[in-house]
Amino acid sequence: MWAHTHRSTFHYTCAERHGTQRGLGLTQSLRSLLQEKEGRQKEHSRMSLKDEVQDKYRLVAVIVFILGLGTLLPWNFFITAIPYFQSRLVTQQALDRATDLNYLNTSNISERAIHADEFQFNNWMTLLAQLPLLLCTLLNSFLYQCVPEKVRIAGSMVAILFLFTVTAVLVKVEMSPQTFFDVTMATIWFINAFCAILQGSLFGLLTLLPQTYSSLFLSGQGMAGTFAALAMLLSMSSGADHRTTALGYFVTPCVGTFISIMCYLMLPRLEFAKFYFSKSASNSAKNYELDTKAELLQQDGNPENGEQKQAVHKIKEAEVLTGEAAQKVSICAVLRKIWVMALTIVLTFGVTLSVFPAITAAVKSGTTDEKWGKFFNPVCCFLIFNVMDWAGRSLTSYTLWPGPDCKFLPLIVSCRFVFIPAFMLCNISDKSYLPIVFGNDAWFIIFMILFSFTNGYFVSLSMCLAPKKVLAHESETTGAIMTFFLALGLSVGAGLSFLFNALL
């Protein structure tokens, strides 16, 4: 009896095991069939999409580039116009002290007074431009849930246009240096606050477009500084008086911002953008991908088969679990993966903003050529910086050295700290503690080329490598974390600029 029962149990167990294996094999076969059909379906969908929706005349690409240009125009136009602002902030006390130093003519007295920089305009401008960037980057993560996207983007652009118009009007308005300083600082604060909201909202919008359009947006941002420097050079070359030159200079970003508004309003009307920006189409595609799995299985077999139904149930359950896992992303876990890149971007921008433009804009030409001395700062400080920064960012399209697994990247970036004493020892007037070691213009130009190129390269490298360290469903959180550390690096550098300026 025991033997009979044992044999029966053995046969039942084998049968059950065989049935389970057969079920698993069938499930695997169904999965393979499903993947093959989905692959054919997606390929057909991609081919159809390519035929039906195209960026005609590359209009969307041009608009995205212009929008990227518009987001960084305010910051670049303000820092490039530092000589104008400093000329408006000369106090009577500064003129009196300059006169007591027995300067021979009025131009030299004014030059001496401007160099005094009693308001520390460069430092305060840098700090009050970066703090709202840090705060509004955090604020924007809450605003996008309660404020519509069009209101955030279009509203920020209109506010920036209004504030730039006020800045242009103030060129012709006489006021005391203290009042002008207060109004200018308030304008810088609010313009950069709106720029932070605008930039974060546009980045979110562009995630709906193909990856190449995000690259175009970044290229537009990289060209904003070059555009501002060229506008300053053209204004100075016009031969007009100081106030008229400044007025024409500040009218330029007003026109550029107005064009950006028109481009943004035109963007949703283009068929290519309309297709990608359609949220209902996006949601339908996701639902279709989840629901058609069962249909594909039932079309290829008997719908009454219990094992097929079980396989369909398992696949649906796996999809639900995957979706839940994608929503539950640990910030601490992501930060442990990308801390090297986060530290790298903080160190990079910390070094850059600690001396640019607070200290670099104070460097003067060591030659006696007055014409070259007039163009030295716009060309050697701002134009070279923006061109080489853009070149450094572009290099990451060809190489990503060192790779994402390199732990020594922050150490390599720390070598850029050598630029801080290098610029502080250049030809800066009215130093109290440091001598002028690098008085020749060539030294400053060499430092600026290396300084700006490494800034662009390491910033772009960090932003490119960070997503490679995380899973696909952690990419959005990674972008938010890196944006926060980018703003943190800018703010740290702006704060350090006060310290280094005091050590001159």
From TrEMBL:
Q: How does it sit in the membrane?
A: Multi-pass membrane protein
Its transmembrane ranges are: 59-85, 124-144, 151-171, 183-209, 216-234, 246-267, 338-363, 375-396, 408-430, 442-466, 478-500
Tell me where on the tree of life, at the top rank, the source sits. Answer: Eukaryota
- A GO biological-process term: adenine transport
InterPro entries in UniProt: ENT1/ENT2 (IPR034764), Eqnu_transpt (IPR002259), MFS_trans_sf (IPR036259)
Keywords carried by this UniProt record: Membrane, Transmembrane, Transmembrane helix, Transport
Q: What SUPFAM superfamilies does this protein map onto?
A: MFS general substrate transporter (SSF103473)
Q: Where is the signal peptide?
A: none
Its principal location? membrane
Compartmental location: Basolateral cell membrane
Asked if the keyword Transport belongs to this entry, the reply reads yes
Cite a GO CC annotation.
Answer: plasma membrane
Task: Tell me one GO molecular function of this protein.
Answer: uridine transmembrane transporter activity
Q: Which PANTHER family match?
A: EQUILIBRATIVE NUCLEOSIDE TRANSPORTER, EQUILIBRATIVE NUCLEOSIDE TRANSPORTER 2
Question: Which family, according to the similarity comment?
Answer: Belongs to the SLC29A/ENT transporter (TC 2.A.57) family.
**What is this protein's name?**
Equilibrative nucleoside transporter 2 isoform X1
